[in-house]
Amino acid sequence: MGKAAAEMKLTGEQHNELLKKLKARFEKNMNRHKGLEWSEVQSRLEANPDKLWSVSEMERTGGEPDIVRHDNGTGEFIFCDCSPESPAGRRNICYDRQALEARKSFKPADNAIDLATAMGIDILTEEQYRDLQKLGDFDTKTSSWIRTPSDIRKLGGALFADRRYNTVFVYHNGASSYYSVRGFRGSLKV
Question: Nearest CA to 190 among 58, 90, 1, 21?
């Protein structure tokens, strides 16, 4: 990840505040996770401090993380960025490091793949993005980079998605492009 272990720990106050926010969001949006109990989620988060730190990074960058799925086989809860628009703290970035290095001028500050890795989360696939959109209307004014198949990426492209006209659209762009309204959404298994 590249971050020092001390940087990846929450203080007691940060830990408590984050759990309070997550619980409130969980209870407000039960349609995203019917039949799940907050106490089970909290226990898993507390048993995995590195994952709790990643969820805090999702929150810090405007993702409004919430549980969107439970894997009955592994017992894992899947957090996803559920902010109405692409997380504000992760916008104006190109797709990956290769795209960032390819830009000769006007380089963005970062790229989606490296930022997701540093946060300990995965950028959403097209399937995950479409599943998220079944839970609400997301990215109606913004767009989000999504995991791009290697054959498309090798040719210089990258995929992004949004919701317009009550429909989810998946588009392509040069991977080195960046826009003030395009960020990325992530997921995390806990």
Answer: 58
Write the pLDDT tens digit of every residue in 38-58: 999 999 999 999 999 999 999
| 91 touches 111 (CB < 8 A) | no
The whole-angstrom separation of Cα 152 and Cα 171 is 12
Packed helices 112-119 and 49-60: angle between N→C axes, nearest 10 degrees: 140
By residue count, the chain amounts to 190
Determine contact, residues 170/159, Cβ cutoff 8 Å: yes
Query: Among residues 180, 107, 183, 172, which one has the least CA distance to residue 145?
Result: 183
Q: Provide φ and ψ at 54, rounded to 5°.
A: -60, -40
Secondary structure letter of residue 117 according to DSSP: H
Distance of CA 176 to the CA centre of its chain: 20
- Which residue blocks in the chain are alpha helix, DSSP H? 12-28, 38-47, 49-60, 97-102, 112-119, 126-133, 150-154
Supply the pLDDT for residue 1.
41
> How does pLDDT run across 55-111, given as a tens digit for each residue?
999 999 999 999 999 999 999 999 999 999 999 999 999 999 999 999 989 999 999
Beta bridge partners, 172, equal 159
Round to whole Å and give the CA distance between 186 and 147.
10
